[in-house]
Amino acid sequence: MYTVMIVEDEPHILNYMKRKIAPIKDLELIGSFLSPTEVLRAFEQGEQPDLVFLDVEMPEMTGIELAHQLLNQQQNLIIIFTTAHRHSILDDFKNKRVSCLLKPIVTKDIQRCLDAFKE
After folding, report:
1. In CATH, what number is assigned to the domain containing residue 113?
2. Distances (CA, A) of 48 to 23, 74, 83, 104, 119
3. Cα-Cα-Cα-Cα dihedral of 35, 40, 43, 48, to 10°?
4. Of 112, 90, 114, 102, nearest to 27 (Cα)?
5. How many distinct structural domains can be found in the chain?
């Protein structure tokens, strides 16, 4: 079982992501955030999930910048970036538990990522 947070600046995509992870019995949603500063505040208050679904393109700071900050606070954190564009972001996170999903995200893709982390 993984505790999960979602960070997505678009409310309709945030709700979409909640619906996509709901049927996955290995995931327990403990927080969803529309801005990077909200999730940073939650981490500072001691809320630290096992896994974060993290949008790459956000106005306040990029998901990549946020990922580095979150990993500094919790080094064993799993991050799954969600993006509409192909990136080479995984190169920035060698030796970390990081993956990437292209939007639109489907439940089977989420499950595939989770299975890879279990191996």
Report:
1. 3.40.50.2300
2. 22, 8, 23, 26, 23
3. 50
4. 114
5. 1
**Which residues are CB-neighbours of 66 under 8 A, at least 6 positions away?**
7, 36, 39, 40, 54, 58
Note the pLDDT tens digit of each residue in 16-34.
Answer: 999 999 999 999 999 999 9
Whether residue 98 lies inside any domain: the answer is yes
The residue segments making up the domain with residue 119 are 1-54+92-119
Here the tokens at position 61 are 């700071």
Residue pLDDT, tens place only, 42-59: 999 999 999 999 999 998
Q: Which residues of 1-10 are buried (b: 16+ CB within 10 A; e: fewer)?
A: ebebbbbbbe
**What is the per-residue pLDDT for 23?**
93
> What pTM did the predictor assign?
0.89
Q: Is residue 79 part of a domain?
A: no
